[in-house]
Amino acid sequence: MARIEKFQPQLKPGKLIPQGERIVFEIENPVDQVVLPLETVDFLLLCNGEHTVGEIIERLYHRKGAIQFKTIYKTLIYLRDRGFLENGEELIVHDKQESINNTRFFSFKPFFEIEVGKRIFSGEPRLLHFYFTSMITILTAILSFQMIESSAVTLKFFNLSNSFVQGLFFLFITSSILLTIKNLFQCLLLLYLTGRAYNFSFVFTGYAFYFRVKSDSLFLVSDRLYLFLYYLATSLCYFPIVACAFFFFPNLPYLNESMSLALLLCLFDLNPFQNSKTSYLLRSLLNDDTVNRVSAYLKDRPLLQLVHPYERRQDLSLYLLYAHFATIWSVAMMYISYSAIGYHYKSFLVTMHTASLEERGSALIAFSILITLFCVMFYNVSKIIWMALILPASYTFLDYLRQRKSHRLQFFNTKEVISALTTLPLFNFFDNELLDMIVNRSELKEYKSHAPIIIQGDTGEHLYVLLSGKLQVRRRLPTGRIQNISQIMPISIFGEIAIIESTPRTADVVATQNSIILEIPARMIQQIAHNSQYVRELSNFQNAITVNQFFTSAPLFRELSEQVIQIFMSRGKIENYVEDQIIFKQGDPGDGFFLLLRGAVTVRVNDYNVARIQQGGFFGEISMIADVPRTATIFALEQTQVLKINRDTFWEILALDISMAMLIESVGEMRIREDIEIIKAGSARVA
Q1: Which fold has domain 405-540?
Q2: 83 phi and psi angles, rounded to 5 deg
Q3: Which residues on neighbouring strands pair with residue 16, listed in sequence order?
Q4: What's the pLDDT at 31?
Q5: Given 3-state DSSP classes, what are the helix, strand and coil percentages for the chain, each rounded to the nearest 5?
Q6: What class is the 2-92 domain?
Q7: 423 in Cβ contact with 491 (< 8 Å)
Q8: Which of 75, 314, 332, 447 could make a disulfide contact with 511, Cβ separation 3.0–4.6 Å?
Q9: Which residue in 418, 423, 426 sits closest to 542, CA to CA?
Q10: C-alpha distances in angstroms, 51 versus 4, 6, 44, 55, 168?
Q11: pLDDT at residue 303 above 50?
Q12: 215 vs 178, which has greater pLDDT?
């Protein structure tokens, strides 16, 4: 199996037939054909099994000067799925990330979906309309809570008038109506908030057939208040819908049952174990503009990979909020399912013994749903207990194991240790006198096989040098599974992020065989870094640390391969800018791509400030990908430090990591659309 960058695509024997703006690729055994965009023809001609995708991209770049990564990606996946690649089974699209979101949860995936439209435009956003509509919906929902009776938790609608058939019919019809109205309301909010709505379809899920509108246009919104109101209003809108229906039609039957179903649908919308309204709502609270603005293009990652107590200390309170809500939600759902089972148990037994075949089948379906719901919620609560209680206890055991399976070496050859350190780039900045001082103030330890050296969650106070042996880097995921990340071989340095700040460790490092490790106090290196008499090239040393910190902390770049990071670090140029200093101007030729290491910058288009990019973000990608002059002026909001790479290095990196290339390309497209809209709006105001 091969990652997409290393995959060598080989087309089955066939022929290419131009058809206007399309190209038809036809194979003979079996006879089949696919129709692809004409711009893919150069890519198809190179899919002969002799070149990797990365090599093909490099060739196309040197030939054309620009690449459409998403087109290449979609073409490859399409050819593989249609069976037009000889070696399609070798292609790995992406590695699944296990997390709390992989916990089984009660949900219905669509059996089929019928697309009925792509987009609606309504002109300019109407933020005032959005604000009042969402606030009225939320307030009405709160007022309508008094209509919910205590018996709603028994889910009486499963058995209406002693008939499970009527109950399932009520469930299907009412759910279809509520979900359709909810999606129409969601479409209205999107039009008010963004001026557009995308992707309309009719969906059949087994329990409902309804009209669905996706929230794809939300990537245009960066204001957290509006995002919060949107997710909250669309989650609670079921209650005002039912309340209004019975207000205008007071003779409608089944008020309590309808409110009970509205409660259940609302809870499904707030399911914290999937990408639901809860996950998006809490994600919108993240203090990270870059993550918010490109969330539509990130991999399908769970919230806990962005908000994790061991990786982002500043978001610990948000993590705790999420964990508490997940616990409350699971217990509430378990209580509802338990109450419903108790309420319907006797009628279920009577139905199974005395009723008709249709009633017995319906009763069996209804009761199976309730039992499954209860079991899954019990499983979810167990997972949360595992995360909150058992995992922390395991850290204490690992610390005990670390002390038992390691000992300090009192006698060793200092010159041999210094010689080993000089082979590492980080220590090239120190002279021999300083290296001797570092070794004498550090500890040389031997760890037995299976002994932990670094424990995930520990505060980093040392950096380590592996002199002999072998280590395994592994991460304990929120589900409890151990994910092996990489191996460390001698002579290597690890744990160097401790030089920057005392952040919690993000993974375990465990000895797989007896290993000798030099433990260097991070505080000593920090003191040395501020004393220029010891360091030959102090600025280079500090820059190396800064760049290393960026790639271990920036959400968009922390999963890059070591090879890509090394290219950034070896070929990138550190540049510093003071407040209000211009980095480049609109219309300048595009000669570089920038990573924002420190500070923040403002994006200005036609004298309008259109966006702000914070630390951990990037800019300059549009002119690099589209091969056009700069589309905006960028200037520093404060003391700012960036890492700049030139055009050739930029394309080399994109060829090595297609996922990152598609992310950068998508962000560039999003920013271009925003720039065009702002320019049009400015022209309209002038006119």
Answers
A1: Jelly Rolls (2.60.120)
A2: 80, 30
A3: 25
A4: 54
A5: 50, 20, 25
A6: alpha beta
A7: yes
A8: 447
A9: 426
A10: 12, 9, 12, 6, 56
A11: no
A12: 178
